[in-house]
Each structure stands twice: as structure tokens, then as C-alpha cells.
């Protein structure tokens, strides 16, 4: 009976989350605008940094890896000989994901005064934090995609990009909900997560192709939840292909993350005000 109750709670948790966002969409827009403005508050460049920061990253990576180190990859394996293109195809999605998790982990504590004094749908806060990082890093990704169009990489497989981005966002949202709720009760969560993110980055084929991993370890990549997403971004953008198997695995990870993460958040949210 308890198991059925738990499964029912897991099934309806994302629905409650979505309904809260729809019901308070006006408040979501205000918080989102505040989130974006807060990133550039007090800076002379303002939103200009949305463009200049990723552009500088692209130029620096191009110079270091394309001019100085001159790293070349197998075109047959990754779709390009350019290490820079291979790196950026996975790096921008990873940055949106990792920065989003770090931002959302402490977002409830950061807004403790609002949570304890105002009746607020707390589901808004992790969603706003994650949306902000995806929005900001989306500018860098847009610049990169524009270059790929100019370089002739565009293909019909790019039609899968909106689906992949949505899946990746929902996957990250589930983890963000879990980490945000956990951090309320375990304040060391942010420090622990920073170490996990550091290790996770190097365990994911972002700065190296799969062929560099010994064959006996390649099967373990599928236990890395981010692996299918990064691979799909690289495949779709550079190789003009889309592996249905990877998309299926990415979908499974998304469902697990979203249902478990929002369920954990929903079970604990009524205690946030007492602890904060």
C-alpha cells in the first residue's frame, strides 16, 4: 500500500510542478527577469556580456586548440577534424547543465526571506534559476550554431535540437529540484556538488572522443546520465545523425530524474519555511 502511494506521488509530482508554473506564470516572468538582470547588475556592459563572454570563449578555444596545439580528430568518428568544434558542441550544453545545478542548489537558501514571509510557490525558484542559466548559455550556443550554419554543417537532423534541449532541461530540472531541496537540510550540498561536477565533467566525453577510452570501459558510459545528451548534441550538430538508442536512453534518464527529483522536492517543501 505504501509503495502504491509512493508511486502515485511520483506520478503526480511533475504535474503539480507544471500546474504551479502555469498558475503563477506572471510571477515566473517577474522572477526570471530579475534573475537575468541580477547577473549583470552594476556592470557597465549589462546584457552586452551575453554576447561577448561566449564569443571570447569561442575565440580563445579556437586559438589555443586550433592554432597552438593544432589538435585534429577523425572526421569519420566525430564529424569534423576540428577539436574546437567537437569541444564546443558538448561544452555549451554542459555549461548550461552544470551552472544550472550549482545555481539552483542554493537558491532556496538565498531566497529564505521570501519563502518564510510570503506565500510563494517555491517550485518557481529552481525553475527560474535553471531557466536563467540555459538562457544565458543559449547565447553562446546560438553563436556556435550560427558558425556551423556558415561552415555548412546544417542538416535536417537539426530539427531534433529543440526536442533534445527540452529533454536536457527537464533532466536538469529534476536534479535541480532534488539538490535544492537537499541543500535546505544539508548545507554542505553545494560544496559536495562542486566536487561531483568537477569529476563528472572529466568522466563525460566532452574534451575527448569515445575512441580514446579503452574498449573495456566504454560500456560504463551508459551509466553516466549526461553521456547520451552530450553525444546527441555532438552527433546532431557535427555528424548530421541521430542515434535513436541514445535518444531512448536520454528519455529514460529524463523521466527518472524529473519524477524522482520533483517528488523529493514536493515531499519536503512544506518543511522549508521551518528550517530556513
Q: What is this structure's SSE topology?
A:
Blueprint: H1 2-23, H2 25-39, H3 49-68, H4 75-78, H5 83-105, H6 107-110, H7 112-117, H8 124-151, H9 161-185, H10 189-203, H11 215-218, H12 227-239, H13 244-268, H14 272-275
Helix pairs in contact: 1-13, 2-8, 3-8, 5-8, 5-9, 5-10, 5-12, 8-9, 9-13, 12-13
What share of residues are in beta strands?
under 5%
- The overall pLDDT, averaged over residues, is 86
- Helices, by number, come to 14
- Main sheet attributes: strand count, strand direction, barrel closure: none
How many β-strands, per DSSP?
A: 0
Total domains, how many? Answer: 1
Please state the overall shape, judged from the principal axes of the Cα atoms: globular
How much helicity do the residues have? over 70%
Gyration radius, in Å: 20 Å
Low-confidence stretches: none
Which secondary-structure class do the elements indicate?
Answer: mainly alpha
**Order of helices and strands, N to C?**
HHHHHHHHHHHHHH
| Span of the ends, CA to CA | 33 Å
Please, could you describe this protein's structure?
This protein is an all-alpha fold. The chain has one domain (14-275). It is 75% helix and 0% strand. The protein is built from 14 helices and no strands. The radius of gyration is 20 Å and the shape is globular.
Quick structural summary:
This protein has 276 residues and is mainly alpha-helical.
Amino acid at each position: 500500500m505504501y509503495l502504491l502511494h509512493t508511486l502515485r506521488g511520483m506520478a503526480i509530482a511533475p504535474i503539480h510542478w507544471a500546474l504551479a508554473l502555469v498558475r503563477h506564470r506572471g510571477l515566473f516572468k517577474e522572477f526570471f527577469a530579475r534573475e537575468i538582470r541580477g547577473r549583470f547588475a552594476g556592470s557597465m556592459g549589462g546584457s552586452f556580456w551575453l554576447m561577448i563572454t561566449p564569443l571570447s570563449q569561442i575565440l580563445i578555444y579556437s586559438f589555443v586548440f586550433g592554432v597552438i596545439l593544432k589538435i585534429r580528430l577523425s572526421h569519420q568518428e566525430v564529424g569534423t577534424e576540428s577539436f574546437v568544434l567537437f569541444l564546443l558542441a558538448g561544452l555549451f550544453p554542459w555549461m548550461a547543465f552544470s551552472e544550472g545545478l550549482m545555481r539552483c542548489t542554493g537558491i532556496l537558501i538565498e531566497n529564505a526571506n521570501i519563502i518564510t514571509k510570503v506565500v510563494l510557490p517555491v517550485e518557481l525558484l529552481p525553475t527560474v534559476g535553471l531557466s536563467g542559466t540555459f538562457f544565458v548559455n543559449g547565447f553562446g550556443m546560438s553563436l556556435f550554431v550560427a558558425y556551423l550554419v556558415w561552415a555548412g554543417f546544417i542538416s535536417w537532423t537539426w530539427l531534433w535540437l529543440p526536442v533534445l534541449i527540452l529533454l536536457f532541461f527537464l533532466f536538469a530540472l529534476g536534479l535541480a529540484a532534488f539538490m535544492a531541496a537537499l541543500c535546505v537540510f544539508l548545507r554542505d550540498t553545494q560544496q559536495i556538488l562542486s566536487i561531483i561536477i568537477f569529476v563528472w565533467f572529466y568522466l563525460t566525453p566532452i574534451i575527448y572522443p569515445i575512441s580514446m577510452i579503452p574498449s573495456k570501459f566504454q560500456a560504463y558510459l551508459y551509466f553516466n546520465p549526461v553521456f547520451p545528451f552530450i553525444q546527441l548534441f555532438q552527433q546532431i550538430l557535427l555528424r548530421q545523425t541521430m542515434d535513436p538508442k541514445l535518444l531512448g536512453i536520454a528519455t529514460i534518464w529524463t523521466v527518472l530524474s524529473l519524477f524522482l527529483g520533483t517528488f523529493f522536492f514536493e515531499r519536503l517543501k512544506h518543511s522549508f519555511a521551518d528550517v530556513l
